[in-house]
Amino acid sequence: MSSTPAAAATAAIPSIPRDDDGPVFRAPWEAHAFAMALTLHDRGVFTWPEWASALADEIKRAQAAGDPDTGETYYLHWLATLEKLVASKGVASTETLHRYRDAWDHAADRTPHGKPIELRAEDFAR
C-alpha cells in the first residue's frame, strides 16, 4: 500500500480511520470525500501538511462547539475541511458548493432507495 495516494495520505494524516489494509469508511460518501481530497492534492490544490492543519482546526472548532469526538463525525469534519479549502483556494465558491449540495439533496429526495442518484437541470432550479 505504501506507493498509493491513499497510503501517502494516511502517512501524512495519522488521524485517518484505518485498518491494516488502509483507510476505512462507514458509508460510501466518506470514501467519495476521501477520494476528492486525494484528487485535489494530486492536482496541487493543497499539500498534506496544509490539509492536516486545516482538518485539525476544523476538528478543534467542532469540539469547541460540542462535538463529542467519538470518531463517528470524522468524515463530516473531513468534508467541511474540503469545502473550506476548495473555497479558499478559489476552486469553487461557497455559493457554488451550496448550489450543488442543494441540487444533490433534491436529486436524492426524488431517487428511489438503492438507485443511483442522477443530477438533472431541474435539481438546480430550486
From TrEMBL:
Source taxon at top rank: Bacteria
Region (Disordered): 1-21
InterPro entries referenced in this protein's UniProt entry, alphabetically: CN_hydtase_beta-like_N (IPR049054), CN_hydtase_beta_C (IPR042262), Elect_transpt_acc-like_dom_sf (IPR008990), Nitrile_Hydratase_acc_put (IPR023808)
Positions of the Nitrile hydratase beta subunit-like N-terminal domain: 17-104
Residue ranges with Low complexity bias: 1-16
Entry-linked NCBIfam families: nitrile_acc
Name used for this protein in its record: Nitrile hydratase accessory protein
Native source species: Bradyrhizobium centrolobii
